[in-house]
Write a structure and sequence with these properties.
Length: 269
Amino acid sequence: TAETASQCIEVLKKSPTITTLDITGGAPELNDSFRLIVSLARAVRPDLKIIDRCNLTVLQEPGQEDLVDFLAEQGVSVIASLPCYSAENVDKQRGSGVFERSIAALLALNEAGYGLPDSGLELDLVYNPLGSFLPPPQESLESKYKEELEENFGILFNQLYTMTNMPIKRFADFLYRRDELKDYMDLLVRNFNADTTNNLMCLNTISIGYDGKIFDCDFNQQLGYGMGSSEVHGEGGKTVFDVESFNLKDIPIKNDNHCFGCTAGMGSS
């Protein structure tokens, strides 16, 4: 809401240790307060890194014709989801025509300077596995993405991030229906990597819901594990309306089985 967005900015003013504002939520650009929070954040914190988690196809939605120009003018970094560099795999996962629309969006971002050397406009991509397995090594997959996208479409980008599928919500339901949930959890536990634990998102990131509720991470938000609340989807948790700054390190982090998703293999935070 506009009220939540404005309050986030007020608390951000008093939180100099916060260096990044990461806006997500499926297609956050369609929220009525998206441009408001971006503009206000840039005005009060010119040094702030602002990230838009973009699904790419939103760039073709009615009313979003000037979105790329707005993002570039505000110096917003774009992290876009592209589950594969082949049309067959993307359309199978996301729906018919999604790959073509995603490529058109990436070309539009490139045209505005995103992903180009020395432009200052960062364009990163995110890969998720198409099933119940861990992603391949990030560095080698990034090289393959860059090769395929540049050779076939002339598309450039900065980095690729590989993300492990978390055993929650829709993906957990998918695994349960296929009787694969236990096997997938066993896979995550077997591949626990202690080296990932120093860089987990819950150590230096908070997530804020549309209503101002604060969570340790995106995944705890989806599960309703509110920061400072003892109940799932319970009352009494922290919100942006009752904190003076985002320095909340003294509040214990909520952990559960899904946390193995961030610590398996090369990590996912």
